[in-house]
Specification:
This protein has 288 residues and is an alpha/beta fold. It is built from six helices and six strands. It has a five-stranded mixed β-barrel. β2 and β3 (98-108) form a beta hairpin. α1 packs antiparallel against α4 (212-250). The longest helix is centred in the first third of the chain and has 46 residues, at 8-53. It starts with 7 loop residues before the first helix and ends in a 5-residue tail after the last helix.
């Protein structure tokens, strides 16, 4: 009954099954591993951010030793010396679940290059009149080193068209169009808010949270395992249909054609199912 499994057609079906199922399982496992890696990265980044908030300022290193900033140096304590220059406001920022704005001031070093420094946070809408003026003269700042922001990611607003004196993202790409000098591709949030402003806590490294990509990996995991189950299901369904056909053939039962009549026959019951024609009417025996 199962000799049909040795036919070329079923050899192809079986080879496809043996290749498709392991491939789907492998891809599903790989996507699950990617999701678990992102979960672990999020957990590590959260723990690291908590440690950065309690970091000892005495461990701060010069800014030049920590650049370029990456996942290893983000949140580290950095120190820089210079003079405060242009000041900008960063609207639509939350601290302790309250809406307000950052006070961002450029710290220019002797080489002319500037480091964006978030001096603190104030509640409400941006108001230049309410912002304390930065200290005059040469200052040395200490704070957590941060990666340049990307509009539309990690809670950074993507809206443009802001008033003069405001910026939506703290990044060199945005600030280079607002100040007439070169800007470091990083920024620092002070450990203590300047002039009574609230301290802005350091953020975790980018691409280390449970974002949309992480849940896409989880969704793809389910899809690949569903594909593997579907392939197995279809194989059993085809096998069952072939077995039923083989049994019907052994019993002399053949499938009906589109007219609802039995395709095999010669017996009286099959003939009775055929439509009546003039030839059949003439050849039919007369009723007694």
């Amino acid at each position: 009954m199962y000799r049909f499994l040795l036919t070329p057609r079923w050899w192809g079906i079986n080879v496809f099954l043996l290749l498709a199922v392991p491939f789907c399982v492998f891809m599903g496992t790989w996507q699950l591993d990617r999701f678990e890696t992102r979960v672990d990265g999020h957990r590590d980044a959260t723990a690291r951010a908590a440690e950065d908030r309690e970091a000892d300022p005495s461990t701060a290193r010069p800014l030049a030793e920590l650049l370029p900033v990456d996942k290893e140096t983000v949140g580290d304590q950095a120190t820089a010396t210079g003079r405060y220059a242009e000041q900008l406001l960063v609207p639509d920022r939350e601290v302790d679940e309250r809406r307000g704005y950052y006070v961002l001031t450029m710290l220019r070093a002797d080489d002319g290059k500037a480091l964006p420094v978030v001096r603190g946070w104030l509640p409400g809408d941006p108001d230049p009149a309410a912002v304390p003026a930065p200290p005059a003269g040469e200052v040395t700042v200490t704070g957590a080193l941060q990666v340049s922001e990307v509009p539309g990611q990690n809670g950074v607003p993507a809206a443009g068209g802001l008033p003069s004196g405001q910026t939506g993202a703290i990044s060199a790409a945005s600030l280079v169009n607002l100040v007439p000098y070169e800007v470091h591709d990083a920024w620092v949030t002070l450990n203590e808010g300047d002039a009574g402003m609230k301290t802005v806590p350091p953020a975790a490294a980018p691409d280390s949270g449970l974002d949309l990509k992480a849940f896409q990996n989880l969704g793809y995991t389910g899809e690949w395992f569903v594909f593997a189950g579907f392939v197995v299901f279809m194989w059993f369904r085809l096998l069952r249909r072939e077995v039923e056909f083989a049994r019907d053939a052994e019993l002399g039962i053949l499938p009906e054609d589109g007219g609802g009549t039995t395709t095999a026959g010669g017996d009286g019951e099959a003939a009775e199912g055929l439509p009546e024609t003039p030839e059949r009417r003439e050849s039919a025996p007369a009723a007694s």
